[in-house]
Amino acid sequence: MDAQRRDRISRLRWLYIDGYAGSGHHVSKARNELVEGSPLIALNTNPPFHEYHFIDADAEKAAELRKQAGPRSDVFIYSGDCNEILLSKVFPRADYGQYKRALCLLDPYNINLTWEVIEAAGNAKSIEIFVNFMIMDVNRNALRKNPDKVVKSKAEQMTRLWGDDSWLDAGYDQVTNLFQEDVPIKVSNERFAEAFRQRLIHRAGFKHVPKPMPMRTKTNAVIYYLYFASQKEAGMDIVNDIFNQYRMKQRLLKWQRQRSSGRMQHGTLSVAAPRSAQGANTVTPSDLRSASAEFRRILLNRVSTSGSSLRSWKNRCTSRSHNAFS
Which CATH entry fits the domain spanning 2-261+283-320: 3.30.450, 3.30.70, 2.40.230, 3.40.50? Predict the structure, then answer.
């Protein structure tokens, strides 16, 4: 039996998939300079993946990424709607019966991802996903405090992401007012995020989905919730380690900002700060790009305790359990 397991593991082939890859470089907000993006970091990991699949809706960005990647036969680059490309061209390559396994990154800037993609990954049994749930865009366009102000096209977009219109039940409580009328009251971000996590488990069929990581701006506004979904517990354990490292970093950065803004009082943090110290609670496109880049950087650089590659994550999982990722 052990020999059979070793043979099965040796036959595994790993795919790296990025549904919103970009051009391979991005401008660092902290350093204000062009830095290597996650596709190039992934391509330079050692040991490497067996296949890399990068998708971007922008043809110019896809062409630039191809130029950066060079004429490698293991790199596949697509331009177009990632929902269609993933379902028709990429996910079928992660064939469970052929010992193919994939790690897929899905981090759009809005809610244009469709539930069919998420569900297909779950049904494949061979694909693990990192997906961001763009709660900022949801709140601005679909889950408004006053449902009557929601634009129809945005509600339809939200339904495509959620899979059906049950997001309305998850997003609003019906409360009876003094006039005996049922009034929809919007639920908290945390509660709505938990409802989506439950869908990943019970509807998409992922067995292990840890609580998501809220990705925040410097003003503490949550841009999106980052989810990991897998069929194997070993992967979830390691992702929890990554999430915990990021939580520690967030707490440290918050402490540093509060200290620099004069919110420290005798070695402790004050409860609140003046509005001028906090800054306006706004989110810019630059914030979105920075949060996305931060997520990818953490994933690629901290995915194992040794700080090596994503493949090391798989190797570590395999060593922890004979059945991991099989």
Answer: 3.40.50
